Amino acid sequence: MASGSEKTIPPPKEAVTTVVDEDPNLSNFDDARLSGLGYKPELQRKFSLLSCLAVGFSISNSWFAVSAALSTGIGNGGASIYMYGAILVALVHVCVGASLGELASAYPNAGGQYYWVIRLAPKGCKAFLSYLTGVTAWAGAMITGASVTLVIGQGVVGIIILCRPEIVYKQWMGFVGYQLTNILVFFFNCSNRFLPGLNKASLYISLTSFLTITLAVLIASPKKASVDDVFRSYTNNSGWDNDVIAWLLGLLGVNWGFSCLDSCVHMAEEIPRPEKNIPKAIMGTVAIGFITSWIYSIAIFFSMQDINSVTATPTMVPILELFRQALRGNIPGAVFLEVLVILTAIGCLMSIHTWQSRLMWSFARDKGFPFSSHLAIVAGAPYSVPLWSHLLSCFWIAVLGVLYWVSTTAFNSLLTGGILMQYISYMIPVSLLLIRGRRISIPGPFYMGKWGLCFGCDGNYPQLRDRILVRPGKESF
């Protein structure tokens, strides 16, 4: 987007149309449309709606996020954060998901947010805004990957400490677990052959684990908390005198379970009919996430026996101590439930690797990174994935792990910043759409119409499938 040979993208209504049959190598409409946008179809469309939904939900995994960020919520609002904060956050993400779905339906491209900015921003600030969007989106994905990697590493160390109480947790233990996890999960994304099936499996594992843990703690817990304790109690151990600030800080943990909604967007070139399937996957992620997290939160807070022991556990894994209490001190049972959480987290990290590698690959394809000529390469069979982008992304996750060893405070602050970066990458294209009066010349099949104040949208999408394609050209950094 900064070169002398830069091409200008005209509005779709003014663009020259070209018959798809010009290129005999374009076998279907999805690849033809992508070629019409100036991009060569390189990735195989092996993902279905279910496997794309599995990627989105496996990353958000809202019920798992309750387990991973339990100590944050307990100290900043207590049960009320999960009972009412989850409803508030879910409603916000319905709006976020609808906005992303509308843009993904109109402009299905693996670049996602930064590509939408290219289509929406004024020419004078297009390069800066699209670059800012792409960098913040990728950084948010990297930091999210680091947070889940740490959860897995700490979970394994926590199990060891629970079984061997004489061991005292040290930061280097979490660091070693972090790095081993990052290396092992790296291999799941090295080939596209089994990736859709693995993502479906992670979805089933997550839902099965959710049901198993929810029923186990409710049935086995020796006593149940009162309705007042679960729905009306409030706790402020944050250090802030202002309860409102403490409650808002507690929302960060809940929000973590609904973040990363753009992950499905970056699968646009690996799924058929992305203009329809991606919005469905996004909204499905929010719906399943809210239902599972809210029910799960009710179950664990009704089953909690001693909140002080949960927050001060020597294992450094509060949910593991909660499992031990709920199962009447049964350590093997608590370990089993924690293993289910770890398996869910592995599926989550696997999908995050998919997400961040596609982000880096698509951004490098438009020359947004150093060494873009290498990072934009899709490895041949049997890999069929952007292997260099995947490798470099995992390398930077490993680098972020060093920060945890140096300072847990700095690392935790970085995780908070990761959520902010994701929202910045969403805010820029959505704001540009609002500035344009929410006018999309040729909207996709998913558009909000009067509900989104989308004046000027006629929804006249079906004509685009008559083997006629708009070829607006391609811009690069």
UniProtKB/TrEMBL annotation:
It holds the Pfam family AA_permease_2. GO terms for molecular function: transmembrane transporter activity. Signal peptide: none annotated. Keywords: Membrane, Transmembrane, Transmembrane helix, Transport. The keyword Transmembrane helix applies. It is a multi-pass membrane protein. The chain crosses the membrane at residues 47-69, 81-107, 128-152, 172-189, 201-221, 281-302, 331-352, 387-407, 413-435. It comes from the Eukaryota. Its main location: membrane. It is found in: Membrane. InterPro entries: AA/rel_permease1. This is Amino acid transporter. The lineage of its organism: Eukaryota, Fungi, Dikarya, Ascomycota, Pezizomycotina.
